[in-house]
Amino acid sequence: LDGSDPRDFGGAVSSAAQNYSSPPTLVNALTVAKARVRSDGGEWSALTEAKFKVATAPLMVNNLVVAEFLYHPMDANAAELAAGFTDQDDFEFIQLLNIGAEVVDLSEVEFTAGISFDFGTSALQEIDPSAYVIVVKNLDAFRLRYGSGYDSMIAGEYSGRLSNGGEQIVLSGPGGSVLRDFTYDDTTPWPIAADGYGFSLKLVNASANPDHALAQNWVTPAQFGGLPGGFARSVTFDDWLSYFFSEAELADPQISGPDADPDADDLPNLLEYAIGALPGVFDDGERAPRVKVVEDAGQDW
Q: Distance between CA 283 and CA 278 in Å, rounded?
């Protein structure tokens, strides 16, 4: 019942196989059952398999959200260019989050505007509670930039591309029903750091099911490249430098060194890296560290 063949290589019985005695109870929402008959003499029948879906929640606008998307990625660094990825759009991604309490069946879900993707033909056709599923523009490019640790969340590659100037995104459900329909933009009040500076748009407090169409419900996370899978990834200072500085600039410590301040905003490169700011853009204080006094149990801190 784990999707593996009950016959091991060489003809032995797999350690994961179960002898049939009565109809099994399926506990997973999506189960691929594989079966064979084995004679007393050790001969195996052909493999049969069937997919079962049980206890999945109906698709509704209160259990599936577009949690984050990267519509204008950073340009490729030297290593990515050497691997043949010259188009920044290859690094786009968009991810869904199940904010409900039950497994959601994605087999009739599609992106029908902005990008095109049919989950019914994808590698992932269900999503657990509090889990993410990611669709990407180019899987090889995504893996090179983000690593392969997200593979279990990736449903596949979409066709089309997310417009750098903003556009409508529609996520459709069974019978063409609309699950999500919103239009993002690259100008204020939408977060402008998402337009070419390498930051994604992330839904604020996604579990509360906010209105996707309102700009105030979107922010840019502090980590460039976004948070695929919903969590920050490990990025070294040298990796960070490789995306923001040219090879000539990397060779000049007065520009790319940890104490250098090429944009003259009093935030050296190392601090810009730490707080998720941009080393080539004067910071107006939005991302700079701030100090304030707070009261706790009658005492100021």
A: 7
Rounded to the nearest 5 degrees, what angle is found at the Cα of 149, between the Cα atoms of 97 and 128? 30
* Token representation of residue 222: 């502090």
Place of tokens 């000539």: 248
DSSP string, the chain: --SS-SBPTTSPBPTT----SSPPPP-SSEEEEEE--B-TTS-B---EEEEEE-SPBPP-TTTEEEEEEESSPPPP-HHHHHTT---GGGG-EEEEEE-SSS-EE-TT-EEEESSBEEGGGSS--EE-TT-EEEEES-HHHHHHHH-STTGGGEEEEPBS---TT--EEEEE-GGG-EEEEEE--SSTTS-GGGTTSSPPEEETTGGG---TT-GGGEE--SSTT--GGGS-----HHHHHHHHS-HHHHT-HHHHSTT--TT-SS--HHHHHHHT--TTS---SSSS------EETTEE-
Residue that is written with structure tokens 């399926």 in the block = 26
Position 158 scores a pLDDT of 97
CA distances from 257 to 106, 273, 275 (A): 47, 12, 16
How far is Cα 153 from Cα 127, in angstroms, rounded to an integer?
Answer: 9
Residue showing tokens 């840019």: 220
CB 120 within 8 A of CB 114: no
**C-alpha dihedral sign at 8, 14, 16, 21:** positive
Per the CB < 8 A criterion, the answer to whether 190 and 215 are in contact is yes
pTM: 0.76
Could you report the per-residue pLDDT of 229-249, keeping only the tens digit for each?
A: 998 888 999 999 999 999 999
